[in-house]
Amino acid sequence: MDSKYMQNVTVFNHPLIRHKVTHLCDVNTGSKEFCEIVSEITMLMGYEVLKDLPTKMVEIQAPLSRFESPVLAEDFTIVPILRAGLGMVDGLRSLLPTAKVGHVGLYRDEETLKPVQYYFKMPVDVAQGEVIIVDPAFATGVSADAAITLLKEAGCKRIKFMCIFANDQGIEFVASRHPEVPIYAAYHSTLPLNSHGYIVDAAGDAGDRVCGTVSYKPQ
Fold it and tell me: What was the pLDDT predicted at 216?
């Protein structure tokens, strides 16, 4: 992949994140633990993803004096791509419980591997603040591209994309179409996708594992 597509991509190399990613990929990790780890990784990534949120000064009364101190100037909106993205919402909301949540419903046509939209619901003021799109697996990139396009059409200007597993194909596809959108990933795979469009060195179908509809545990 051309290195220019990685210019706006942040891949986390923190040992805690790498440790938790390994457990996500393990077939013996059950749905409950999988959901908990997804949330934990998201929270750890959130400190970096949200580092440029604007702040404002407010005056507070502390025990020994009165002084000005910064607080967030605005909330942000979390937009999970249904259904797997729902597993990442609580991790970010644990950092800011007042964060708003929109939803993009997309499913992938198994034959064409293209996204089909079935739901789109955003806060009324979504275009006024920062928007973080979340989806655990970033493989072909078509769902991320569709979600970003929908949000741009809704007037959003400050969009970020956050995932756990990213692949070269998805990064190149989205970065070429939306070069201004930062991409954050906990793991970057350089291996080719399989015939079904899945990242082979990742956790399988993240939506199934979050919802418990499929188990990869050996029988």
Answer: 74
